[in-house]
Each structure stands twice: as C-alpha cells, then as structure tokens.
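Sharing a chain and its predicted structure for anyone who wants a worked example. Both blocks are below, sequence first, tokens second.
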Amino acid sequence: NGGGQHLHRINFDKYHPGYFGKVGMRNFHLVKKVIKTIDVCKLWSLVSERTRLHYKDRTDKAPVIDIMKAGYSKVTGKGRMLKQPVIVKGRYFSRNA
C-alpha cells in the first residue's frame, strides 16, 4: 500500500504533480507586519471632550489627531464622523476613510 515515492511514483507524478517536495524559499526570521486599525467613527475617542468642544465653533483651526501616538497605523472607513473638521495623521488610510 505504501511506495508513493518509490513503487507508485509514476502514478503520483502523472496524476498528482507537486505532491512531494517543498515549494519556495525559506525565510527563517520572518516578521509579519501587524497593522492596528481604528474606525473613522472612533477617532474622536482619542481626543478629550474638552478639546473637541474647544474647536467646535472655531472655523480657522482644526484639531490634529495623531493615530500613531495612540498605537494605531491605519484608519478604516466604518461609521460616520462628526461634521466638525479635523486633521488626521496616520500611515495608512482605506479608500472609504
């Protein structure tokens, strides 16, 4: 019943190519990039309520929210933001954000 690599090799090579062996190159110390995301609707939780009320009536300036300082690197477009203008600094932004 055995013999996949010996006796029945023609069958395996013919009907199941690539069944045996390794494919690709090895990377021993692979570090996968983990991207922490935050939704658009939760951006104002990074800023205090006092700051938001301070900039609410001012049209000449807008608050700057740096998501990198909070430990996030990507902004996704889930939810709705307030109508208040804001500047968001980040590394990655989704198309909807």
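Comments welcome. The chain has two helices and five strands.
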